[in-house]
């Protein structure tokens, strides 16, 4: 960094942009909406040219605002988490906020540690994809005035805004498609549901709809890590059992779709005659012949809406509204894996 960039000040930015020092302060202090778009562009250009970087920690100590949004994800390796995180980060950046991400690896103890860490940084809002049941910790954050949004998974004993997929409608859409393609015997494959309300909702809807639609089927719930042989045996048992109608496998999320695809390839099962469909659209699904049918979640919109909800909650502090549930619809992407 140049010597000039190191000593650039808010006053120099103001002079270079031809605006007041107050306007620059508003731009970097979360009040950009009070400035014209032309003024915002000039300030941004001058800051880049001069190498100006505001001291956000100092601003937080002075004004009581950290400009940080916290995000807690249950599994950062999950493609869904990564895709939603992108939407959250984009929305934060547009609002002059920075995103601080913590990964819990689906460990409730680590989740509690990260919540304490984020509270210490005085985050201005928290988007959380829960791994356990941290209701007590979340209640403490809410009591301090921190807006909270639950992502994808809700908690029975803690009320907050929830943003995610309409799980019941997603299962209905999947079954509509499979039935229309002539499949009548189904195996629903999911990771364990105990700590994830979204998994519970999808499994419950699948079981409920089997009888309502005159379908035959069963569910298989198992952990994926190190369980490839067990999954392969479960898939083989389903395919080897006597059947009177065409069979298909419905996968509860992207990680399951990948694991089931590997199992089918290992068993030498061609896709299409045996159907395969997954919730979550992943890049590789179009590359595995003949293409895997999916239900795509609008992950960018989900992430952006989570941030919008936080900002709305912050604006409503004096007169808070009841918790909101914002559910998005999945988009069917039909490919060869469900074409008989």
TrEMBL record:
It holds the Pfam family LacI. Gene3D superfamilies: 3.40.50.2300, lambda repressor-like DNA-binding domains (1.10.260.40). The keyword DNA repair does not apply. InterPro entries: HTH_LacI (IPR000843), LacI/GalR-like_sensor (IPR046335), Lambda_DNA-bd_dom_sf (IPR010982), Peripla_BP_I (IPR028082). Residues 8-63 form the HTH lacI-type domain. GO terms for molecular function: DNA-binding transcription factor activity; transcription cis-regulatory region binding. Keywords: DNA-binding, Transcription, Transcription regulation. PROSITE patterns: HTH_LACI_2. SUPFAM superfamilies: lambda repressor-like DNA-binding domains (SSF47413), Periplasmic binding protein-like I (SSF53822). Transmembrane segments: none annotated. Signal peptide: none annotated. It comes from the Bacteria. This is LacI family kdg operon repressor. It comes from Halomonas stenophila.
């Amino acid at each position: 960094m140049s010597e000039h960039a190191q000593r650039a000040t808010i006053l120099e930015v103001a002079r270079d942009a031809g605006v007041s020092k107050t306007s620059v302060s508003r731009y970097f202090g979360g009040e950009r909406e009070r400035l014209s778009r032309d003024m915002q562009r000039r300030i941004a250009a001058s800051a880049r040219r001069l190498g100006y970087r505001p001291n956000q920690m100092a601003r937080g100590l002075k004004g009581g605002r950290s400009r940080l949004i916290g995000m807690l994800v249950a599994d950062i390796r999950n493609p869904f988490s990564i895709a939603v995180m992108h939407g959250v980060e984009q929305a934060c950046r547009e609002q002059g906020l920075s995103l601080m991400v913590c990964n819990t690896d689906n460990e409730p103890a680590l989740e509690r540690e990260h919540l304490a860490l984020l509270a210490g940084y005085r985050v201005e809002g928290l988007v959380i994809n829960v791994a356990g049941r941290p209701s007590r910790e979340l209640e403490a954050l809410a009591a301090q005035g921190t807006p909270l949004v639950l992502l994808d998974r809700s908690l029975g004993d803690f009320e907050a805004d929830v943003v995610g997929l309409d799980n019941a409608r997603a299962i209905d859409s999947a079954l509509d498609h499979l039935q229309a393609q002539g499949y009548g015997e189904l195996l629903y494959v999911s990771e364990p549901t105990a700590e994830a309300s979204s998994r519970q909702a999808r499994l419950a809807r699948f079981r409920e709809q089997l009888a309502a639609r005159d379908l035959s089927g069963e569910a298989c719930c198992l952990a994926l890590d190190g369980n490839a042989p067990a999954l392969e045996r479960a898939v083989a048992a389903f395919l080897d059992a006597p059947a009177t109608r065409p069979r298909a496998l419905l996968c509860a999320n992207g990680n399951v779709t990948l694991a089931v695809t590997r199992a089918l390839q290992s068993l030498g099962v061609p896709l299409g005659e045996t159907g395969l469909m997954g919730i979550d659209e992943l890049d590789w699904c179009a590359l595995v012949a003949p293409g895997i049918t999916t239900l795509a979640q609008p992950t960018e919109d989900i992430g952006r809406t989570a941030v919008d909800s936080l900002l709305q909650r912050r604006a409503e502090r004096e007169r808070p509204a009841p918790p909101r549930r914002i559910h998005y619809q999945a988009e069917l992407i039909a490919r060869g894996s469900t074409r008989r």
